[in-house]
Amino acid sequence: MIDTRLAAKYCRERINPQHLAEALLADPGTPTLATELRTALTALEMTEGFIAGLITPLDRSLRDVEQVLAAGRHDQIPLIENTGVLHARGPRLDALLARRAAQIDHLRSLTRLWAAEHPDTTPQ
C-alpha cells in the first residue's frame, strides 16, 4: 500500500491509498496520474529521509559547541571540529530543502488533479 500521508500533510488532500493502488494496477505499463503521484510521494519521502539523516550529526556538532561555550574552568569539554561543522553539511541541507520545496509544489499540482478526477479524495 502506498503511504499518502504526505499529500494530507502538505496538500491538505486525503488520497485513498486503496484507490491509488487500484489505479496503478489498472494500467501498469503506461505512465498515468497515479504513477506520477506515486513517484512524487516516494521522492518526497526519500528527500525527507535524507534531511532527517543530516539533522542528527548537525545537532550533535552544535550541542558540542554549546557545551564547550557553557563549560566552566574545571569542566571536561568535548573535542569539537574546528572547521567544517556547517561547511560539510550546510550546502547539502540547503540543496535538500530546496528539492523538498520543489517536490511539495509538484505534489500539490498532482493532488489537485487527483482530487478533480477522484471523488474519494476529500479536503482535510
How far the N terminus sits from the C terminus, by CA atoms, comes to 20 Å
Low-confidence stretches: none
Beta-strand segment tally: 0
What's the helix count?
A: 4
- Mean pLDDT across all residues, rounded? 88
The whole-angstrom Rg is 21 Å
Q: Describe the biggest sheet?
A: none
Summing up helix and strand content along with how strands pair, one would put the structural category as mainly alpha
Q: Tell me, what's the shape? A: elongated
The helix/strand series, from N terminus to C terminus, equals HHHH
The amount of beta strand, in percent, is: under 5%
Description:
It is built from four helices and no strands. Helix 3 runs antiparallel to helix 4. The chain is mainly α and 124 residues long.
List the helices and strands and how they pair.
Elements: H1 5-11, H2 17-26, H3 33-70, H4 90-117
Helix pairs in contact: 3-4
Quick rundown:
Helices cover 67% and strands 0% of the residues. It starts with a helix and ends in a 7-residue tail after the last helix.
Task: Record keyword descriptors for this entry.
4 helices; 124 residues; mainly alpha
